[in-house]
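Q: What structure does this chain adopt?
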Amino acid sequence: MSQRLHTEGEANTSAARADYARTHAHPAEANLLRRDGAAFLHQSLSSPCVATIAKAEGIWIEDLAGRRYMDFHGNSVHHIGYGHPRLITAIKDQLDQLSFAPRRFTCEPAVALAEDLGRRAPGTLDKVLFTTGGSDAVEVALKLARAATGRFKTLSFWDAFHGAGFGSSSVGGEATFRAGIAGPLMTGAEHVAPWAPRDCPYGTETLAASARACARMIAYVLGRDGDYAAFIAEPMRATPLVPAPGFWQAVRAACDRHGTLLIFDEIPTGLGKTGRFFSHEHDGVTPDILVLGKALGGGALPIASVIARHDLDVAGDYAIGHYTHEKNPVTARAALTTLQIIDDEGLVERAAMLGLHAMERLGTLAAPGNIVGDVRGRGLMIGVEIVTPEGAADPMAAERIYYRCLADGLSFKVSAGNILTLSPPLVIARGDLDRALEIVEAAVRAEAAA
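A:
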């Protein structure tokens, strides 16, 4: 486990982190952390780490010192919790039957998974390709859009994240994944301001007006040159940011007018997290290409998927993916079993129900002049905005709250500098969720009183 505070690229050298590291230092972790720092290339938000992980089960992670934390981050992979017994059994059984499929050899688990995803996807999205990670899946989607349209330009949002590959970081807009690279990134990757800029008050008419202006700008840019292959975005930002009503309908209409494909990146938000199986279902818009990943492997194995409209199957003469493990029977079995667990345990409905409960409870913290400016989200993807009494973003207060919660056994992510981002597994018990909410509430009140 890394307890590095994730603030989308911002340096984390604050007193809050130093205090936490000092008061929670443990000799059992020191040697592994030293080895980690010596062995890995250093990079922002990843290595070197500031803590360890020794065990993960259900909603819990445990470090080498034996300290346990409810994990409300999990890199968005832990929808069914860690080490789900049914998943582990399925993976072991598949390893005994067939552990690998060379390219040009198909296998039952891979075909069954592609068929399953094609049935679940909306409209005519029933053509599938698998990769080993979300970044690669985004790359495949971009290649397919180019092949299908004969165009090379893309449009996306500044501040967006679509992966760490060369193409995916090009269409992304986070500085952390673009800075430090000598020379230009992928050509043709154009950006517009997001529909909810960081300095835009959330939950206000100002925000709705910003979304309308953003939709008009997207339509203007797509129409100005008329040569965009695709517009790519998360239907709901994982920060989290819920789109204004009608926003995606306007973008969909603009894409249709100008022959631009709409790619939805649901790598962190799909598979039931928002209370619908696909997060775009909330907005009544169907993309041309859909990308899934992270939780698809059940929090155990890496697998991602591109699902495209049937008529976009036009790249048969090209190798748009051609990954060594693109039809791996073990990762495919893990994904199939994960989907079955989501269905059998009613996890989509559970996310909607528990998310509504959490939103209502945390919503009591938001009030004029309070340090919580807004509580927002869908399903079990919830954001708590930490602000000054005047309503400005307060990253330092958010960080202090984060470390208070961590000390009390709750781990999560801070997004956009000041958003406590709570993303628990869909299998979480109501009692554990309430305990986590108590921890957040106590930390917020302690910060407000400080």
